[in-house]
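Need the bound structure for fructose -6-phosphate, inputs here:
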Amino acid sequence: MCGIVGYIGTNAAAPVILEGLSKLEYRGYDSAGMAVYDGNQIQIKKSVGRLKVLEELTHGGATMPGVAGIGHTRWATHGAPSDVNAHPHYNAQETIAVVHNGIIENYLPLKDKLISKGYTFTSDTDTEVLAHLIDYYYKRTCKDGTEGNPLVAITKVMHRVQGSYALGILFADHPDQIFAVRKDSPLIVGQNEEGCFIASDVPALLKYTRTVYFIENQEVVRLRADHMHFYTVDEEEITKEPVTIEWDTDAAEKGGYEHFMLKEMYEQPKTVTDTLLPRLKNGDIVIEELCMTQEEICAIQKIFIVACGSAYHAGMTGKYVIEGIARIPVEVDLASEFRYRNPILEKGTMVIVISQSGETADTLAALREAQQRGHKVLGIVNVVGSSIAREADNVMYTWAGPEIAVATTKAYSAQLIALYLLAMKFGKVRGTIEQTQFQEMVEDLRRLPGQIEMLLANKNRIQRFANRYVGAKDVFFIGRGIDHAISMEGSLKLKEISYIHSEAYAAGELKHGTISLIETGTLVAAVATQNMLFQKILSNMIEVKARGAFVLAVTTQGNTEIEKAADYVIYIPDTNPYFTNSLAIIPLQLFGYYVAVGKGCDVDKPRNLAKSVTVE
Ligand code: F6R
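Answer from helper R.:
Posting the output first, comments after.
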């Protein structure tokens, strides 16, 4: 949550900062601001509202001349979205400016201490404490009117504060440098012939460079126009290895689509292919990153899958698939629950965490909790070099590329593939699936990208259907077994971007309470892809219809009974029953998307949300 950028070089800083912030707006978008050194002083402009307000305020950066600056796009934690709470924050003399992503947990005692020393505060943020604390230590390094030492001041502050932070810092006394530091919030830096850059995430730098350095916890970077120096929290200089980012520059652009979400939905055939094909070798599944011997795979007694939001929903599908194929018991836990409920992790338990961003605070904490209890953790992660990717013992990447829309689509689809591959690998090694069955499943997997493409081609029909529901008050999604897992994701897609209340229920649960909510015309989306359960879900469809519901069925071809019971039918192509979620999710994503578009919602940036939830 929150995105920071910084630039120092030979070009005007403000336009570079605005460009970088535009690629990080998915991290938070309730206010934005930047600080640029104009040759005499630090100028700050900030405003509540989207980045475009800041762009207008500064005429695209033209009113903020200077070649060194920092910027911020905010998702409010401490203090409501407002002009004063927007970043950057500075000290009383306006000679030190700070942008911050994270939370300073001990900001209140620090604030009291600073107030007792005569400091005054203008905002409600924890970040303002940092600006004043840096000022306090900086002034202590100024001897007899000399300039102070920023590095010493910054490291002193790092020793004092608790919590998470990625910071960009600008000193008026040292306008030829900017500083960046991190602890538990993501931070990268990069360089090209025209300067050096700071950013919270790769998309902000793609236009300028693909060679980046991932900053580790408690490291400091001093950036000048033509070089960077890295330090530990004890001011010792260190060397770091650059990493080349493979993503192409178009990856973070809309490329002619109306929204990133639509573009990312259309990228799903490729995402599935990229996650799948490198792991299919000579008729087998090879997951080198798993780093497990056959004996270790056979010794797994239980699997915990831990994640948040859509990644948790992918985990729910994973439970059905792994239990069904590999016959290993799977428990799926919300990361925010797992970390505080003292889970029982016995010998032989494998822990898998799933995360697109690799930065979700609860998932990261769950990973650490499992490791502290002596368990190795496999991360299924999308963002290369993210915190979870670096801290997990082994990482299976979902090769979805940058996902910009706040509502996940392509990364979720890639997560499903990773889970299918694990289930099949485990099943084969443990002897719970026959070779012929395994080969048929591999062929079904290979067909998925083409089948997803077919479903996407049906978008106009779904759009027409979705247009009828822009005024809906409540929508229910029902399914049984694996179809319940997909109902959860379908429901989340709709509600998070359209703000229409929606719930997913295991269809058999309806009678235990929820059915009282059904009124004439209420839309119930029934996912019915499992042969074995057709009769059961059919009964539930008939029950809600009898109470006035309008029933949409997402089902496989040739289900005449389901067709008769439903008011509207969307078909998915034939595949192995374990893989139907990869297909059923496509019309549900399109439905949520077109309802939100029809309502005029800001699809890529739904209210109150941010893409990486780096706070608890
Ligand atoms: C919903 C969505 C969120 C994320 C959740 C976990 O569309 O995107 O529910 O799935 O915040 O995020 P990651 O996967 O980054 O850990």
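Comments: The radius of gyration is 26 Å. Residues 356 and 382 are 5 Å apart (CA to CA).
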